[in-house]
């Protein structure tokens, strides 16, 4: 609908129908409306939700009483005869005249104590939520001071638009939402094609005012974000770092001398930015919590929060298990006297670079933390991941851990959903381990694709569950987990048959697929819709194609599908 009046009327009709016919689902309705992704796109809804949660509607309990009084009054009026109604109206008019006379007579008198009491009519009304601009027509104002932008403000960088979350910016987290994707300010600057700009505080703007000015004036609070230059190199020793920073300082001073007189405002902002860039180049990406490391031909990831020392804290994650740095070096190099600081490499440099820069801080010998002095339960917990393998989140319900591999899952994220009682000491094996164990003794001849797709899914349920879990875990940002229509305005108008992994999971669990081909067809529909909707978004299209290739490759392995010849 293009007419605003028709939109409003249709919305009111919808809400009226919901209240009348589906009143038991009103709570579910608002919980769907007030999702974080939707409120990031529509600040009005966040303001509306906050107004519903605070005391601005505290008088709603009086509504039923008022309605009962009105209904009783109407009943009495119906019972009255016409003569009684006339008498009552005359009496009311006489009373009103007396009140008016009394007010006129008492104008010159001081009010008594009793007259100071507020009548129900004089009671202050609760504040209403204002969705429009607080300014009058023709006035100009700062939109970041409007109530609607109390939690987030609209920002632009080049031709890209997004919503900046104030709290996330203050915490140093990914704070700019574009659709369902979150970016840090430097990432948003790169996403907009402005990575060559001097700093994100000058390139990202709100109503043509750079964020650096808003931060300086106190409208925004910003934590430090690491800004890395393309010319920055990885250095091995602290002395090299000092000399390199001195050279860069000299170059920056020369550049500043050349640019003097161009703009005083730009010069003031750039001084603060240069300090942040210098700090970022002196310390190699402190914000990273996970580092990709190698030892010989073996590769793994080092998790900073699990690191304690060389032999304490299983901080290195391989494909099959968690290890301490010493265990990783012994396993990878088979040395009798390994040195984990020297033998473990990160981006071509020994791990001692991180310890010298105090990114990795070795715990003292007297440390009594859970990593240095672990109990039996702590040792067991260190064998498994700290986050769900599917949704990549630690929060939520308690994780269920596999007794064979280091994977952990939320009970609802796993397929099939885990129904065991948490705390049960019986061994549990995840779907990945079950499938790999069965695959060792299972022999199948090569099949044509059509023959594999026509197989009854009831005979291959474990394979399909494995494929779907494999796809969900590969989708690290969970782009395809939920219905895109919830956070993309025009998605339903462009895509006629939306499909997402959550819907495929529900259909698989409810036995709504008859053949393997029906299951695979729905999965392929996810990528087809993505390719059609993101024709102009090369980055998202590339990511979608990679996931499609991964799924197709794993599908051929699982069902032993014969490679198609080019003839």
From TrEMBL:
GO CC field: nucleus
Q: Where is this region: Disordered?
A: 63-101, 244-284
Question: What are the Basic and acidic residues biased-composition ranges?
Answer: 63-80
Stored InterPro entries: Bromodomain (IPR001487), Bromodomain-like_sf (IPR036427), HSR_dom (IPR004865), SAND-like_dom_sf (IPR010919), SAND_dom (IPR000770), Sp110/Sp140/Sp140L-like (IPR043563), Znf_FYVE_PHD (IPR011011), Znf_PHD (IPR001965)
The name this protein carries in UniProt is: Nuclear body protein SP140-like protein
Q: Give the keywords, sorted.
A: Bromodomain, Metal-binding, Phosphoprotein, Zinc, Zinc-finger
Under the heading PROSITE patterns, the entry gives: BROMODOMAIN_2, SAND, ZF_PHD_2
What organism is the protein native to? Labrus bergylta
The PHD-type domain extends over 385-436
| The Bromo domain, residue ranges | 488-541
GO MF assignments: DNA binding; DNA-binding transcription factor activity, RNA polymerase II-specific; zinc ion binding
Per the record's keyword annotation, is Metal-binding included, yes or no? yes
Q: Does the keyword ATP-binding apply?
A: no
Residue ranges occupied by any SAND domain in the UniProt entry = 153-221, 281-361
Q: Identify the domain of life.
A: Eukaryota
> Where along the chain is composition biased (Acidic residues)?
245-260, 270-279
Q: Which Pfam families does the record match to this protein?
A: Bromodomain (PF00439), HSR (PF03172), PHD (PF00628), SAND (PF01342)
């Amino acid at each position: 609908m293009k007419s605003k009046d028709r939109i409003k009327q249709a919305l009111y009709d919808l809400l009226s129908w919901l209240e009348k016919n589906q009143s038991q689902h009103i709570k579910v309705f608002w919980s769907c409306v007030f999702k974080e992704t939707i409120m990031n796109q529509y600040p009005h809804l966040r303001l509306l939700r906050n107004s519903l949660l605070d005391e601005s509607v505290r008088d709603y309990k009086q509504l039923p009483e008022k309605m009962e009084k009105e209904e009783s009054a109407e009943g009495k009026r119906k019972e009255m005869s016409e003569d009684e109604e006339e008498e009552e109206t005359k009496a009311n008019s006489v009373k009103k005249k007396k009140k008016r006379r009394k007010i006129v007579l008492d104008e010159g008198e001081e009010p008594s104590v009793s007259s100071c009491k507020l009548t129900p009519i004089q009671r202050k009304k609760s504040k209403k939520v204002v969705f429009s601009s607080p300014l009058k027509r023709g006035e100009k104002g700062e939109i970041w001071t409007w109530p609607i932008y109390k939690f987030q403000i609209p920002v632009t960088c080049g031709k890209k638009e997004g919503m900046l979350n104030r709290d996330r910016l203050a915490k140093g987290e990914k704070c700019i939402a574009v659709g369902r994707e979150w970016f840090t300010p430097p990432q948003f600057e790169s996403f907009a094609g402005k990575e060559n700009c001097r700093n994100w505080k000058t390139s990202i703007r709100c109503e043509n005012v750079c964020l650096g000015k808003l931060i300086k004036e106190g409208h925004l609070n910003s934590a430090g974000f690491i800004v890395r230059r393309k010319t920055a190199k990885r250095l091995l020793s602290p002395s090299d770092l000092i000399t390199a920073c001195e050279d860069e300082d000299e170059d920056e001073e020369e550049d500043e001398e050349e640019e003097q007189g161009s703009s005083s405002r730009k010069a003031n902002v750039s001084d603060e930015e240069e300090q942040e860039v210098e700090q970022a180049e002196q310390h190699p990406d402190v914000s990273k919590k996970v580092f990709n490391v190698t030892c010989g031909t073996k590769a793994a990831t080092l998790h900073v929060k699990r690191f304690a020392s060389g032999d304490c804290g299983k901080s290195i994650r391989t494909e099959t298990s968690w290890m301490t740095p010493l265990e990783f070096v012994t396993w990878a190099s088979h040395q009798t006297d390994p040195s984990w600081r020297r033998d473990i490499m990160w981006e071509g440099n020994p791990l001692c670079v991180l310890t010298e820069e105090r990114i990795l801080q070795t715990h003292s010998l007297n440390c009594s933390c859970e990593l240095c002095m672990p109990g039996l339960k702590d040792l067991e917990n260190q064998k498994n991941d700290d986050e769900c393998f599917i949704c990549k989140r630690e929060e939520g319900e308690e994780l269920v851990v596999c007794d064979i591999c280091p994977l952990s899952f939320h009970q609802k994220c796993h397929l099939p959903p885990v129904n065991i009682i948490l705390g049960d000491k019986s061994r549990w094996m995840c779907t990945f381990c079950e499938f790999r164990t069965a695959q060792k003794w299972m022999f199948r001849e090569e099949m044509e694709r059509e023959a594999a797709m026509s197989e009854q899914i009831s005979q291959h349920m474990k394979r399909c569950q494995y494929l779907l879990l494999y796809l969900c875990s590969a989708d690290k940002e969970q782009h395809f987990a939920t219905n895109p229509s919830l956070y993309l305005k025009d998605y339903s108008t462009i895509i006629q048959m939306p499909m997402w992994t959550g819907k495929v999971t529900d259909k698989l669990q409810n036995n709504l697929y008859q053949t393997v081909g029906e299951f695979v067809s729905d999965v392929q529909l996810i990528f087809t819709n993505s390719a059609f909707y993101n024709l102009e978004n090369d980055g998202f299209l590339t990511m979608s194609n990679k996931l499609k290739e991964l799924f197709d490759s794993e599908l051929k392995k699982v069902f032993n599908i014969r490679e198609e010849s080019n003839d």
